[in-house]
Amino acid sequence: MKPGIGSTRCLLAAVALLCLRATLSADVLITEIHYNPPEGKDLQFVEVHNSGAAAVDLSGWGFTDGIDFTFPQGLSIAAGEYLALAKSPGALTAAYPGLSQTAILGPFEGGLANEGERITLSDATGAARQTADYDDDPPWDLLADGFGASLERICLTASPLVAANWRASVIPAEAGRSGGTPGAPNGTSVCPPAPPAR
What we know:
Layout: H1 5-25, E1 28-34, E2 45-50, E3 56-57, E4 62-65, E5 67-70, E6 76-77, E7 82-86, H2 89-95, E8 104-105, E9 109-110, E10 116-122, E11 128-135, E12 151-153, E13 166-168
C-alpha cells in the first residue's frame, strides 16, 4: 500500500459516516403543525414523516420543546409513513374520520402555543433530530391562526425553521372546522420554497 492511501481511505470513510449520520438525522421530519384549531386545543396535532428509505425505530424518541411526548417502546415509522401526534386522539379521530387509527398517537402533554414557539423532536439519546419554528405574525401564514388551516411544510429538504417553508393548508368550506392533512402527504410541495408574498 502506498504511503498516504490508508489515511485517505480513513478520511473518506469518516466523511461517508458523517454524511450517513446527517442523512439519518433528517429522515424523520416535522411536516405539519395545527396549533390553533377553531374547535379548540383538543384538535391540535403535530405530524412527523419518515422521508428515508428504511424504517426508523422511534422507541424512546420524543418531543422535548413545545410539547411533551415520548414515543412508546417498539414503535417504528416505516419509510414514507406519516404519523399524527394528537393532543386528543379521540377528538382527532372524530374530526378526521378517514384517518387510520394506526396513524394517530397521543395524547401529548402541554399544548402548542397560539402565539408561536419552537418544537423539537429528539431521539432516544436526547439528541435533537428535528427542530421547527412557527409563529402567528407575518411573514407566517395567518390562515393557520384560528381560521381552520394547519401549517404544512412545503419542501422536505429545506429548513423547517423559516416561514418561507410553511404554508397554510386548504381551509374547509364549512366555517369553524379544521383542515389540514394529518397522517397524509401535504397539499403543496415546492422545492425550493418561494418567499411568501408581501
